[in-house]
Structures are given as structure tokens and as C-alpha cells.
Amino acid sequence: MNMDKIILGKRILIVDDEKDVLDSLVELLDNCKIDTASSYEQAVKMIDDNIYDLAILDIMGVNGYKLLEKTNERGFPAIMLTAHGLSEDNLLKSVQEGAVYYAPKEEMSNIKAIVAEVIDAIENNKNTWERMMNRLASFYDKRFNGPDWREKVKKDLAERMKYST
Fold first, then answer.
1. Domain boundaries, the chain
2. pLDDT tens per residue across span 38-77
3. Within a 10 A sphere around the Cβ of 161, how many other Cβ atoms?
4. Per DSSP, which regions of 21-141 are E strands?
5. Which of 28, 37, 86, 148 could form a disulfide with 43 if both were Cys (CB 3.0 to 4.6 A apart)?
């Protein structure tokens, strides 16, 4: 998979209340057309006024789940990228509320690969959550103290994204 080719010129909205996170993501996704917002209000205006190939939303500090609802209404896929909100409950909520991926900020250095995986999956009618599981399941196993979290999200993943293990 040629990451750069897949994401070249894609229009992406990134919403986070931390300027250093926004700056890093803009730098890492340098071949995309990026809009950034550091508040809920800024993000809502951008969502209402523009069309995006993808949104990357923080959960905490910018009301990420309300923004996810807005991106869903407009038909933009959204990745939930979080640090403080990293939990089994937020992973499940992200699935249930229509996110296409759930990633920890600890994986931010891999955001180009994550975005390419998501866009490639969407464009080829593939399962974005399956890609997330392939990339991050072992990370979450360690973070969530074992693989029990998989059973908690399995039903919702199966219903929402036709994912099964």
C-alpha cells in the first residue's frame, strides 16, 4: 500500500484543543489538505461549511462525540484520536456512535499509515475496524489489561461494522 498516494490531496479536518498536537498532525499529514480547529465552535463551523474526506477528532476538550454526531450527519468518516479518553468504554462508544477508527495519541507518529488504511478501506468498501484490530489489538490488550475488552466490543462491531473474530 502506497500511503502517500492514497492520502495525497485528501481534505482532512483535525480537531484538538492542544496546539502541539494539531501542529504535529499537520506536519505528519503534509501531503493532505488540512483544516484545523482547536474548539468545538470552530469545528462545527468548518463541518457545516466544508466537505471533508475524513475528520480526526479528539474526544476530550473539544466535545468529540458531539462533533462525531455532526460529521456523521454530513457523511464524513471520523477517526477518534485520544489520550485522556483512552478506555474500553470510549472505544465501545466510538463504535456505537459511528466512528470508523479509534486510535491512541501514542500512535500519532503512525497517523499517515492509519489515515491511509482508513481511506483505503472506505474507498474499497472494506472494514475499517478490522484494520484497527490488525494494527492496535495488542496495544489495547496491554492497555486494557488483557483481551477481555474484545468480547465487550465484539457484538457492537459485528452489528455496526460487520466485524467478527
1. 3-161
2. 999 999 999 999 999 999 999 988 999 999 999 999 999 9
3. 16
4. 33-37, 54-57, 78-82, 101-104
5. 37
